[in-house]
Design goal:
The chain is 40% helix and 25% strand. By secondary structure, the protein is α/β, with parallel strands linked by helices. The radius of gyration is 18 Å and the shape is globular.
Length: 248
């Protein structure tokens, strides 16, 4: 579904991406892991059309993402794609009710019947384990974990085919992280979603991902099936990442 090759990007003289290639198949969850500054979030932004590379291509169902017009990319992000930000406040409208946040995305793809929109909002709040009685509450009154759940509901209500996730459990308490990861895993399997997730958390990658890419200094140093990479890492950097988790 999504393919990229030869992705290269520099920030001044600093290489952010170096000849990166990646594929995401239908229904597949792919994790991009690495330490801060490895290039993983930059890669996600390039793949999702938010940032243009210096060289290389990104294709969605054969169409060149970066050759599309801005309007076409925005339409793609409202329909086939979704984006879950690390900070849910970047993906929510804080002065609009919880139900309104979910309903806005439905309206963006043509929904107009208020009763149906509200019913779908209630259904999705329940699916992400947010009490439906809070449908008229503002997101600013929610905890961080509940805001993230609301952002996920807003993103998935239009049934996208591919969802980009940038550290979706970052900054949350460990117990909240565990419940949110379980929710993401359940929804991705139930809906047959393709998911491209950036995380520094090796345990999260093992739980969620079918395949994993390990990045260091803008390069993919190792990739493959998640269990194979994490149980038998070949690259010294991957070995260091895995051993640091085991030692923690």
């Amino acid at each position: 579904m999504l393919t990229a090759e030869g992705l290269t990007l520099h920030f001044g003289v600093i290489p952010a991406l170096v000849d990166v290639a990646i594929e995401v198949a239908e229904g597949e969850v792919v994790a991009i892991v690495g330490e801060s500054g490895s290039g993983k979030t930059t890669l996600l932004r390039v793949l999702s059309g938010l940032m243009a590379p210096d060289a290389g291509s990104v294709r969605w169902l054969g169409a060149d993402v970066h050759a599309m017009g801005e309007a076409a990319r925005r339409r793609l992000m409202r329909t086939d794609w979704g984006f879950v930000h690390q900070n849910p406040r970047d993906g929510l409208r804080l002065n609009v009710s919880a139900g309104g946040n979910v309903g806005e995305r439905l309206m963006a793809v043509g929904a107009r019947h208020y009763g149906n929109i509200r019913a779908q909002a209630i259904e999705w709040l329940a699916r992400v384990e947010v009490d439906a009685t809070r449908i008229d509450d503002l997101p600013r009154t929610f905890s961080g974990g509940m805001q993230q759940r609301l952002q996920i509901a807003r993103t998935l209500v239009t049934n996208p085919r591919l969802v980009f996730m940038d550290e979706p459990t970052g900054g949350l308490d460990v117990s909240v992280q565990a419940r949110l990861l379980d929710l993401i895993r359940t929804l991705s399997r139930e809906l047959g979603l393709s998911v491209l997730i950036v995380t520094h958390d090796i345990a999260a990658a093992r739980l969620l991902a079918d395949r994993i890419l390990v990045m260091r200094r803008g390069r993919v140093v190792e990739q493959g099936l998640t269990d194979r990479v994490l149980d038998d890492p070949q690259h010294p950097y991957t070995q260091l990442l895995v051993s640091s988790v085991l030692a923690a």
